[in-house]
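Re: Re: C-alpha cell formats

Sure, here are both.
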Amino acid sequence: MSEDRSWQGAWKVRLHERVRERGYASLTAFAEARPTASLVALAEELGKDDLNAVQVFSGLVAEAERSHQLTRLARGQLVRELFEGLPNGWPAVLDDTNRFEVAHALARWISYTPETHKERARQILVALLATPPPPGWRPLGPDDELLHALLPDEEV
C-alpha cells in the first residue's frame, strides 16, 4: 500500500461493515474463525488498502471489554503470536537462538495484552521460559488446555 488510507473516514464503521459482509455478527467471531491468523492477515482480509492491524485489535479489545472476555482475547492473541513467531512449535531446546525467538514472540504478545492483564502476561513469559511446554507445542486456539492453565478465565 503506497498511501495509508486506513485512518481516513469512519474506519470503525468500515471495519464492522466488512465483518458483516463476510457473514459474521462480530469482529470477534470473524477473528475466532481464523485463530492462528495474524492481526495483519485479518486486516488484509477485511480491507488491504483501508484497514490495518491496530484497528482490528482495537475493535477486538472493545468487543472483549463489552462481553467481559479480555482473558480469552489475551489467550487468542498469544496463539496468534506463537503461531507466527514459532512456526514449528515450541523448540525442543532453548538455546540462545530459540530463547530469543520465544522471548520475541512472547514480548509481542505482551505488547498487545490489555493493561488489566499485563502483569499476568509477564509472569506467564517467565513461567514458560523457566518451565517450557512440550517440544512442538503449538496452540491452535484460545481454548488450548495449557493456555487455560496459564491464563484461566476470570470470574464475571
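Second one below.
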Amino acid sequence: MTKHRKISKFLSYVLRHNPGKIGIQLDEAGWVPVNELVDQSRKHGMRFTKEDIKEVIRQSDKTRFIFSNDDRYIRATYGHSVPAELGYEPTEPPQWLYHGTAERNIESIRQSGIQPQNRQFVHLSVDKQTATQVGQRHGKPVVLTISAKTMYNDGHTFYRSDAGIWLTKQVPPSYISRQTER
C-alpha cells in the first residue's frame, strides 16, 4: 500500500468514524484543526504533514476531504458514522441514481430497502460505473437503480456532497430496481 493510500485510509477512519482514537474531537460540522490532526496522529504512530494530506486530496478521484477556506481546518465530505452536520442543502436529485452493493445483500434490501447501516446517510452515485466500483469492495457487485426523482417527489430529502455523492436517509424497497439499463 502506498504512503498516500495509507494516509487516506487513516484519515477516512479518524475523520468519519473514530476521532477519539487519536484524541481529537470534531466540531459539530465535522471540522478539526489540521495542526491538531497532524500532531495527534504522530503521537499515535501515523506520521504525515499537511502537504501529504494535500497530495492525498490531489491524487484522489473522489473528494473525500476538504480544507477550510483558510486551510486551517479539515473534514471528511461524506460517510460519517459520528454526528456531523455538514451543512448540505436539500437538493432535487436527477431522475435516476445508483447504488452498488454485494449480491449477498440483495434479499435484505428487497425486504427493508437500503439503510445507512453505521453511517448517517445512504450513498448514491450518478453513474453505474461508480456504483459498480463501490459494490466490488463488498463482494460480487450488483448495481441497483434508484428512482430518485420519484422519491423526491414523494417527500424524501436528498443532499449532494462536495464530492458529488448523493445522500439520503434511506431508500425504501419500492424505489429500487435491479434493472440498470436505462
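Residues 3-76 form a domain with the Arc Repressor Mutant, subunit A fold (CATH 1.10.10.970). Strands lie at 32-33, 65-67, 73-76, 96-102, 122-124, 141-147, 159-160, 166-168, 176-177.
- S.
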